[in-house]
Automatic annotation (TrEMBL):
Transmembrane intervals: 76-94, 127-145, 245-265, 272-291, 328-355, 367-386, 419-439, 459-479, 486-505, 511-527
Top-level taxonomic group: Bacteria
Protein name, per record: Glycosyltransferase RgtA/B/C/D-like domain-containing protein
Keyword Kinase: no
Entry annotated with the keyword Cytoplasm: no
Keywords associated with the record: Membrane, Transmembrane, Transmembrane helix
């Protein structure tokens, strides 16, 4: 029997695992009721070889019916969304003149002067020196923490498996039976080829299909990661950490700093506000944590800043040149390819800027639409199946959680508040804001207040930061998991709010200004928590929920090389917490069929058994002649120590 599902709708990993594990347990506990002889994957087809007529297994396949119903609902929602968009566009076209008049009224109420337009664009050497110090501090912190990273998150392992097109136990394939040394299986599953031709094939596959991950992620980060690893063939975890984090450290961090510097100089001119913004944006624990994670979030943080700079140039200047519009559109396309959730931020900012531009100059508003249209064209040129991310994967998870029983707005905002309080609005930062408010109340900095806070730059900085806060709140609510990574990219823009709030006092100078600077610097040092470095102990992993670092299978047991290890599991996410920590010099027996695995176990005096089967099924399959001890459990996988009883 061959069941076909649209690959962009049906995320097969989870459901295949559930089906396979259910049937495997059934085989061992009640062999007479075995319904499915084999489950296999062929592209977007699920192939079942049944031992009984289809009517006998209809109950086992109930989930396929719900998927079919869900597909109809998704199509209906899609058509409704398209119809609503057409109605909105028609209303705008019909009431264009009235909308333009309203925009002109709103725009006339906003600041129109540039605070730093008359200043020289040449930077004060002292300001440049401070910026250089901030860069070196951020560079040094990332270098030090990179040396502290010892474990890989399961998603980081998937980054490598997807990028290298491994198609085996870790991603999108099947575990083939065989006996492998740990070093051999890790190289096969991870960076398995160092040829340039193989890298080009992998990149072509990412361009066309994203190696089966098109439902959740775009291809930009994977493509850059594959180019970064041309010539590399390894399964060594330490080397993978150094190379993977090194990409974030040596490429994305300098680019993020450059974009932040350009954005800061555009909004804050040649002033002390620029290094303050750089420090708050890129030296906090969240930003460093993003660098430590071998995923797309350091790239996304970099492009959040790049997008902000491109829009600041547009809003705070006269009409852009054709070349500037093309380059900005390309930058926006890269930003869209850094993650599907950023579409919300792009949409919010573009809608507001288009409305305000309509009040300033209709021609400028048309140029903004042209920039957006060109960005969409560039996006599809770089990734032709970009739209698939909106009908599956995280998009489906997000829609399912909105209004669902497992979604709590209060809990989402609590976690979001924890992230902001831990990384941006720390107690010392809040105290610094109180000092700035006191200074403003007493009239200190009043000479700067009207000059800067009543300017286009200050308004745009507040707009960027305010939308970043709203974006983070919405994403935290709809995200599949309430964790740091989904909102870490927007946090540098949130820090703009702090800079604007303290700007009058800092620009005025004096003792209170120095006190505020010391408070902000001390905040970065004292409230400095970096994640994604290692898995905590099982009892403690809940203490770091915003990083979602679950335990792995104990690496120390891998040193018992004289004890055989049988691995019986299909391709699944749980394998990311086991295979990459195998001992290089140890033999591992890969046996997919649990019945065959139990036969091999019965032939051993003692053995480790890694599987997804529950202990009851293993004990029942082996009989009373063996003792079965659960040594560790993690994310759907169990490690048992099996020993033959003495008679």
């Amino acid at each position: 029997m061959k069941l076909a599902f649209p690959s962009v709708i049906f995320r097969y990993q989870k459901d295949f695992t559930l089906l396979t594990d259910l049937d495997s347990s059934l085989r061992l506990s009640e062999p007479s009721r075995q319904l499915i002889a084999q489950v296999a994957l062929d592209k977007n087809y699920l192939i079942l070889q049944a031992t009984k007529p289809i009517s006998s297994i209809s109950g086992t396949l109930d989930y396929t019916i719900s998927i079919a119903r869900g597909l109809w609902l998704k199509l209906l929602y899609g058509y409704l969304a398209l119809a609503c968009l057409c109605l909105v566009l028609a209303a705008i076209a019909y009431k264009y003149q009235a909308l333009q008049n309203l925009a002109a009224i709103v725009y006339s109420k906003l600041p129109s002067q540039l605070a730093f337009s008359s200043e020289s664009r040449a930077f004060d050497r002292r300001i440049l020196a401070l910026c250089a110090v901030v860069f070196l501090v951020g560079f040094g912190l990332r270098w030090w923490y990179m040396g502290q990273k010892v474990d890989l998150h399961g998603d980081e392992v998937w980054s490598v498996a997807i990028t290298s097109h491994s198609n085996a136990c870790l991603w999108g394939g099947a575990c083939e039976d065989g006996v492998y040394y740990g070093k051999e299986i890790k190289e096969r599953e991870l960076w398995h080829s160092k040829d340039a031709s193989s890298a080009l094939k992998d990149i072509a596959n990412l361009y066309l299909t994203n190696n089966g991950d098109s439902h959740s992620h775009a291809n930009l980060y994977y493509t850059i990661l594959r180019l970064w690893h041309i010539g590399v063939r390894t399964g060594d975890i330490e080397w993978i950490i150094q190379r993977g984090v090194g990409l974030n450290f040596l490429l994305f961090y300098p680019l993020a700093f450059l974009f932040a510097f350009l954005l800061g100089s555009r909004l804050f001119g040649n002033s002390v506000l620029v290094p303050v913004f750089l420090a708050l944006a890129l030296c906090n624990g969240a930003s460093i944590s993003a660098t430590m994670l071998i995923r797309e979030y350091a790239l996304q943080e970099c492009l959040f800043l790049g997008f902000g700079w491109a829009m600041a140039r547009y809003f705070c200047s006269e009409l852009e040149s054709r070349r500037a519009i093309i380059l900005s559109a390309l930058l926006i396309a890269c930003f869209l390819l850094s993650g599907y959730f950023v579409v919300l931020y792009v949409g919010m900012l573009f809608a507001l800027l288009w409305f305000l531009s309509l009040g300033e100059s209709p021609k400028k508003a048309k140029l903004l639409l042209a920039m957006l249209g060109l960005a969409v064209v560039f996006t599809y040129m770089l990734y032709p199946i970009y739209h698939k991310g909106f009908v599956g994967g995280h998009a489906t998870s997000a829609l399912a959680r909105v209004g669902g029983s497992d979604t709590s707005l209060l809990e989402s905002m609590r976690v979001y508040g924890q992230i902001l309080g831990q990384n941006i609005f720390t107690p010392l930062v809040l105290l610094a804001l109180l000092v700035a408010a006191f200074a403003w109340y007493r009239g200190l900095g009043s000479s700067v207040y009207k000059r800067y806070l009543h300017s286009k730059e200050a308004f745009f900085a507040l707009l960027l930061g305010g939308l970043a806060v709203v974006f983070g709140a919405v994403i935290m609510f709809v995200a599949p998991w309430k964790i740091l990574r989904f909102v870490v990219g927007c946090l540098p823009l949130v820090s703009l709010l702090i800079v604007v709030a303290t700007a009058p006092l800092l620009l005025q100078g004096g003792i209170l200004a120095r006190v505020v600077v010391v408070m902000l610097g001390a905040s970065l040092l004292l409230y400095h928590q970096v994640g994604y470095l290692r898995y905590p102990h099982y009892a403690d992993f809940r203490s770091e929920p915003i990083y979602q670092m679950e335990p792995i299978l104990d690496k120390e047991r891998e040193n018992d090389k004289e004890i055989p290890t049988i691995y019986s599991h299909s391709s699944d996410y749980g394998a990311t917490r086991a295979i990459i920590y195998f001992n290089d010099l140890r033999l591992y027996h890969f046996i997919k069929d649990p019945r065959e695995a139990l036969k091999s176990l019965a032939a051993c005096e003692q053995c480790y058994f890694i599987t997804a089967l529950p202990m009851e099924a293993v004990r029942k399959g082996l009989g009373d002649g063996f003792s079965v001890e659960l040594t560790q459990a993690t994310f759907g996988l169990y490690r048992y120590y099996v020993q033959k009883r003495e008679i």
